[in-house]
Automatic annotation (TrEMBL):
Residues 231-291 form the GHMP kinase C-terminal domain. This is 4-diphosphocytidyl-2-C-methyl-D-erythritol kinase. Pathway: Isoprenoid biosynthesis; isopentenyl diphosphate biosynthesis via DXP pathway; isopentenyl diphosphate from 1-deoxy-D-xylulose 5-phosphate: step 3/6. The gene is ispE. Its EC number is 2.7.1.148. The keyword Cell membrane does not apply.
Amino acid sequence: MTAVTARAPGKINVFLHVGDRMDDGYHELVTVFQALDMYEEVTLRPCFDQPDTVVRNISGNDTYPGLSPVHAVTLKGRFGSTAIPLDHSNLAVSAINRLAAQTGVHVPVEVEIEKNVPVAGGMGGGSADAAAALVAYAKLAGINDPDLLRTVGAELGADVPFALRGGFAVGTGRGDELSPILSSGEFTWVLATSVDELSTPVVYHALDDLRDSGKAPHAGDVQTQLADVLQAVGSGDAHALAQVVHNDMEPAAFGLLPAIAEVVDTGRQAGALAALMSGSGPTVGFLVEGATHALDLTVLLEASESVKHVVRATGPACGAHIVTPG
Ligand SMILES: C[C@@](CO)(OP(=O)(O)O)[C@H](O)COP(=O)(O)OP(=O)(O)OC[C@H]1O[C@@H](n2ccc(N)nc2=O)[C@H](O)[C@@H]1O
Ligand SMILES: Nc1ncnc2c1ncn2[C@@H]1O[C@H](COP(=O)(O)OP(=O)(O)O)[C@@H](O)[C@H]1O
């Protein structure tokens, strides 16, 4: 049995409408995801040579009382030096634990995660780690059940089903109920990551507070806006999409981190077709016309003190898939 590598994409929400908080604490979303060609890569190396008696359940929690198939976790890649958990709460480890527990198939592995999506930036890097780990473990363990991967993915996080699917899709419910959208074109983004991080639940709570205190409007009817977004996506025209991108979380995130609004202004003044915070932020995506436009904008954004990295990406990109063996 040889090593298996799978990739899963980061994302930007080109449209993010946040409904009111539901009884389970989650918010009902109507979002349009676009997968970007920045991929997390998860490699699983079987390690049968290590005797079972020394296998430790690195999950060490009550949910998976059995031994975890995961012996070790390492990180690499452009964003691999960022602090993320390497225990049972790592989303790739959690994905493997859940899939092994659900299927009863236990293949001992070492996990390597190559992080190419900015961490805690609203671009779904952790969700992509989970999606890639699910696909890689399924391949290694001979589990041929896409529905099970989707179910386990949704248990791990609302964004995981989209990382599995990729492309363009409307997400409803928690964002995990997906309907694919056809698009005829390719869109180019320049993404400015922040020197600061934002926690997703903190931004959702801040939006609730703004709404409860009357400082932000409660969610209204979304159908017309959504129809416009679907038409723009279908046209493949970046100028058309630029007119309709929208993110309800922006006022909450800008309140928590005013530097995001400054970065948005910098990109707008530099001629971006549109400026849009990705998900719960703080990464800002700028829609551009193509490579030359992207380069000009990159130079200007790199001069901003609030910007950590500037990354170019195009979408739509494909969902989680096996890279090796072919
Ligand atoms: C905001 C979005 C937009 O795509 O993306 P990110 O900014 O995280 O990338 C998502 O809704 C994030 O999805 P994901 O990060 O997978 O969320 P989860 O792990 O399931 O949930 C983390 C927390 O976010 C809040 N949450 C998440 C989804 C949702 N529809 N309503 C919520 O209120 C809840 O407080 C939950 O406890
Ligand atoms: N593989 C992972 N396992 C567990 N946590 C992760 C993983 N990758 C990132 N994180 C953590 O999850 C949180 C959200 O990160 P991430 O998924 O990158 O961003 P976002 O939710 O904003 O799209 C951060 O606290 C980050 O440190």
